[in-house]
Amino acid sequence: MTDLTRLSAAELAETLARKEASSVEATRAHLDRIAAVDGDVHAFLHVSSDDALATAADVDARRAAGEELHPLAGVPIAVKDVVVTKGMPSTAGSKILEGWIPPYDATLVEKLRAAGLPILGKTNMDEFAMGSSTEHSAYGNTHNPWDLDRIPGGSGGGSAAAVAAFEAPLAIGTDTGGSIRQPGAVTGTVGVKPTYGGVSRYGLIAMASSLDQAGPVTRTVLDSALLHELIGGHDPRDSTSIPEPLPPLVEAARQGALGDLSGLRVGVVKELQGEGYQAGVLARFHESLELLTKAGAEIVEVSCPHFGYALDAYYLIMPAEASSNLAKFDGMRFGLRVEPTDGPVTAERVMAATRGAGFGDEVKRRVILGTYALSAGYYDAYYGSAQKVRTLVQRDFDAAFAQADVLVSPTAPTTAFKLGEKLDDPLAMYLNDVATIPANLAGVPGISVPNGLAATSEGGAGLPTGFQILAPAKADDRLYRVGAALESALESTWGAPLLSRAPELG
Amino acid sequence: MSTISRDEVARVAALARIDLRDDEVDRLAGELDVIVDSIARVNEVATPDVPATSHPLPLTNVFREDVPAPALPVADVLAAAPDAQDGRFAVPQILGEE
């Protein structure tokens, strides 16, 4: 019998629809896979076997009764631990939320449940999504399935690793500065950051509200489109949710896979290559550009001169918003409460003791940076100035999209580095997101598509690289058209998906 | 040379309501300079003629119909609280002693 964990979500959905396998069988196969390999990978913080199997059994019964089901009904999914799930622990990778069971579901989780996707569990992440390697999780590292000594990217390293290790065909990620796309690049998986407001933020434990966006983490472009259409769309509970319907994404992916990009103008962002980018990453990038040219696209070079300031602006805006959002962790209504060891037990002192004990180093660092940036006398000079850079980055995008239909770059400047290698150097860590951050500042959508393997400085067989495609706001369909065209061109040169070359685990 | 002093870090940590150990204050005093460097670079281009952007997509006056909807059950909410009493959150003494 087919190994159900090796199918794409679209293939598994068809297998279930044809009744060649049941959702219970598919869910059990993934739970077995988790039991076999997650001791090494540690993608999951919580595995919800009973809940997932109950959903699967319900879907099977409804299918047997002839009920019309969502196309992804019965296809299991993993959810990043920053997304609240009723009755299932949601820690956001922090000790301050250890054991917290949310009393409600995020809107996107409601949609997953309504469509009948069994939720396998919650995936590991940097604490409150603050990091690019998942090493800032309070619950231990996640390991890259391509090389267990290396990082899976972050903050959504757990979701990317779960999908790359065939522990789940689908996962949910969130992307504030690259936390979906960069883990996708370093694990050989697909990750999509939708247009800001394209997927509801209701029920996401917020880091930076003007930047956060949830999106799909999958092994194929089509799977991302299927999941994006399910979780996206207007939500009255999120006041920043886009009121218009999504463009047709699945259709765009299917059309793109036919491989004809005639008439498409692809803009190569001059500022997102060169210094700091690994040679192998650039080599794969240029090969992908050739494939797009062969598919009929026209390549043009565009300049976005303010992207060089995006990282600095981001590291002012993100901590400022995070320091405000994380004020809710006060030890009063949910989560950890720690009393001071001496002196009076007042609410303020309990709050300080709780946060001192419950937050990890990177969270303290960012909350204090943000508090400093927002404190009296600094607000205009810091947060205000950074917001001006946001305007300049948006103008760069506007000018670039006047010359090109999509913009492209390597997703991450390097392949996966060794666990621990950059942990003591926050600036080196932050540079991982140099190519992904501009999209968050401007709100435009982006996808990372696996586009090959690159040798590291130590040599070796090579590690995955990612190709980033950016589109104008609300034109997410372009990501899928171009992404699927590239994926299909790459797979015909490789003869198989990239992940078929990943080492066996377990 | 650190531009942000140890005392400054301790003051901001108090504003942020985070108890820091001495070694944490020392470390952060060295690390917070990054923000000074960032702002120096940002100010190369953040000139007075450039308007600020707070949100990527401009949406204003987002309203919904004023229709009552059920709130979360009190028991479910209090079940996740560190302490509860009489259907309410139980919190420590709010005011310090004089």
Describe the structure.
The complex is a heterodimer of chains A (506) and B (98). Chain A is of the alpha/beta class. Chain A has 16 helices and eleven strands. Chain A has an eleven-stranded mixed beta sheet with strand order 1-3-2-4-6-5-10-11-9-7-8, sandwiched between helices. In chain A, α7 packs antiparallel against α16 and α8 (249-256) runs parallel beside α16 (476-494). The radius of gyration of chain A is 21 Å and the shape is globular. The model of chain A has no long low-confidence stretch (mean pLDDT 96). The model of chain B has no long low-confidence stretch (mean pLDDT 89). A two-stranded antiparallel sheet of chain B has the order 1-2. In chain B, β1 (84-85) and β2 form a beta hairpin. Chain B is flat and about 55 Å long. Chain B has 98 residues and is mainly alpha-helical. In chain B, α1 packs across α2. Chain B has helices at 6-15, 22-31, 33-42, 74-79, and strands at residues 84-85, 88-89. The chains are: A alpha/beta (506), B mainly alpha (98). The interface between A and B is large, with 74 and 57 residues.
Describe this structure in a few short sentences:
The complex is a heterodimer of chains A (506) and B (98). Chain A is an alpha/beta fold.
Note the topology:
The complex is a heterodimer of chains A (506) and B (98).
Chain A: H1 9-17, H2 23-41, E1 44-47, H3 49-64, E2 77-80, H4 107-114, E3 119-123, H5 157-164, E4 170-174, H6 181-187, E5 190-193, E6 214-218, H7 221-231, H8 249-256, E7 265-269, H9 279-294, E8 298-302, H10 310-325, H11 347-358, H12 361-374, H13 379-403, E9 406-410, H14 426-430, H15 437-442, E10 446-456, E11 459-470, H16 476-494
Parallel strand pairs in A: 2-3, 2-4, 7-8, 7-9
Antiparallel strand pairs in A: 1-3, 4-6, 5-6, 5-10, 9-11, 10-11
Chain B: H1 6-15, H2 22-31, H3 33-42, H4 74-79, E1 84-85, E2 88-89
Antiparallel strand pairs in B: 1-2
Helix pairs in contact in B: 1-2
